[in-house]
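If you are new to this repository, start here. Below is one unmodified record pulled from the training split, so you can see the exact layout before writing a loader.
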Amino acid sequence: MVELTQNTPRSDITRPFGVILLLALMAMGLVACGGASVPPGSTNASYGQLDAQGNVTTTRPDTRQKPENSRTRRSAAIPFKPIPSATLKGLSEQEFETKIGVPEMIRGEGEIRVWQYRSDQCSFDAFFAPETEGAPRELRHMLARMRRGNQPISVQDCLDQVVKMNLARG
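And here is the target side for that same chain:
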């Protein structure tokens, strides 16, 4: 009489190995998710500064401060004269900075620079590009958006908020 044996994998070895392998893969996945975390109040974006040649050099950002709430801020009224946004088109970066102030952030790609200013309620972006290759950059476009929500805001209204905030900072 011939005895037939059935060849089956040894479950006493392969099952624990599979469980350990699965747990190790899950642990690696969880570690990978937490690797790019940043502390509260800071950002993981690399903001840049312009060097003498006009190139953007990245710097490590400091922890951001929360914007002051305009309802809790009590100060004397500051005289304010609006700057019409239409008068800014074509200004150089230096002329624009003289009128509006130092931007909170500058980012660039190639010859184009985007300066960002923020008030409590909106973000204002100024786009600088040269008219021709090698020419100095001039203001070509402006964009405004609310920081929270989807309500529309005009470029002029946001610009006014930014200028008022820069005046308050002194």
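Two things worth knowing about this chain: The beta strands are 47-50, 56-59, 105-109, 112-118, 122-130, 137-146. The longest strand covers residues 137-146.
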